[in-house]
Amino acid sequence: ELDMDSSLGKALEMSCCIQSMLARILAEFEITLEQDVLQPLNKLSEEELPVILKHKKNLQKLILDWNTIKSRLNQAAKNSSNSVSAVTTSGASSAAVKLENLKEEEEEVKRRVEQSKDEYMADLYHFSTKEDSYAKYFIKLLEIQAEYHQKSLEFLNSSLAELMSSHNQTDAPFPYDPAVPGVYGMPLETHLKAAGREIALPIEACVMMLLTTGMREEGLFRLAAGASVLKKLKYCLD
Q: Where does the record place the Rho-GAP domain (predicted)?
């Protein structure tokens, strides 16, 4: 079980608290984003834009129908003028009626095109009056993001400083500088100079331990310590 009073335990506990607070800041950011930006833009995409697109599609269809009827009307007028002298009176009358019907149909479709165009243009004009409001939503999005990142960064900086300060504190009975590397695997002079010591840390620790608990032990130096004991001592001092 991890000792929560140890350096690792304290670092882990503080890191968990920091991550929890960052998650809370993120949740607040997402709620604000949903209320101030996404909901208004969803209303735009689900209510207003579909109406505009529907009128645009209807106008395009009517224009296509109008062009088709105009082509039929032009062809009927051409055929009628070319065959006036070759048809009977009843045939000419039938062609004239057909031509007149096409003209009426063309006029009706033209009227519907103009009406649809007016509806579509009205939608565009209405949308243009709200362009500034919609643009502000994207500005608001960037402002919310900037506030979120700034708040997270400020919290991280203060928490990191507190975590590093707590980590650098030590309850070790011997002077220790966290910037100084371990005592093993480096020259004695380098260790003494870097740590500002006159006696190497392992020697001082062993002497103090002997003075405290080992002076009354018989045959203390007869047997060499086991490899596991030496390894434990080395890592403890390092």
A: 186-238
